[in-house]
Amino acid sequence: MRLYAARHSTALREISAPRPVVDNVLLSRIVGVYNLWLLSAMSDRRRSDTNLSHNRARTCCNRSRETVEPNLSYSYIVHLANYSDGVLYVLAALLLLALGVMIDRFWSLRSTLMRGRGLIHETAGHSRLTHADLSALLRKAGTLPEAALLDTAIRHLDTASGDTMANRLDESIMLIAPLLDRRLWILDTAVTLAPLLGLFGTIIGMFHAFSVLAQPGHAPADVTAGVADALVATAFGIFIAMLGLAAFNALSNQVRLILHQLDSMKIMICNRTDGSEMVPPRSPGAAGRAVSGEMARV
């Protein structure tokens, strides 16, 4: 009985004794430290995101500034050429070649056209052409294409006339014609080739522009700026084509006018070496006044 009472009193003391609070204090400290760490991590993440957005904005500003001022930097022009894998260098060489042909042919054809016009007017003033007249015109012609016609007329003046003389002069014109439009095929080729080369350079630039998407942390402005750089090749090619087309049409028109002068010279030689005297034509103003006078007398 005593033993049972002793055990019961011991159990009552254990139940009534206060529980230790060490575990609760430790748990609250751990939770507090975790909360502090979580707040610090969130703050660091927010700060890094802010810095990244600032860096991207600064990159976009720098890229836009470089895009706005592309012509002010030689390094940017080299960058554009390298961005198309050298296609812009080929286009630049094509432009220089086309400009050289334009200057050379324009100077030569313009001089031939102007001097030939004066020779045509002087030939039209003769009613007949003798050996002396043809020789004088030949000396004045110099290196003009009309010199070949005059030389042919001198060599066949005593042996051919009429259709035979015309055939001899046509043969001379056929031999001269290929020399007038020489090197114009370069302009024709540049007009066709330049836009294709520009498009090819743009496609290569597009490859470089979209390859940025495979890099981590890329900015959308890098892709758009790369596309803008790639389109420069197409614009350059179209510019060369437009310039070459305008020059080709202008030079072809001058060749056509020179061929017309050669045909006019052929007809004048045939008309003035057929044995009959040619009445020199009057100017359009004098002819109009003469017709008006005849109508008034009627």
Protein architecture, described:
The chain has 10 helices and no strands. With 298 residues, it is an all-alpha fold. It starts with a helix and ends with a helix.
In short:
This protein has 298 residues and is mainly α. 82% of the residues lie in helices and 0% in strands.
Structure keywords:
rod-shaped; mainly alpha; single chain; 298 residues
Radius of gyration: 46 Å
> What is the approximate shape?
rod-shaped
Query: Quick check: average pLDDT?
Result: 76
The multimeric state of the shown protein is: single chain
Helix content: over 70%
Largest sheet: none
Which structural class is indicated by helix and strand composition? mainly alpha
Strand content: under 5%
Tally of individual helices: 10
Counting DSSP E segments of at least 2 residues, the number of strands comes to 0
Provide the succession of SSEs: HHHHHHHHHH
Q: Uncertain regions: pLDDT < 50 for 5+ in a row? A: 1-8, 11-22, 64-70
Number of domains: 2
End-to-end C-alpha gap: 175 Å
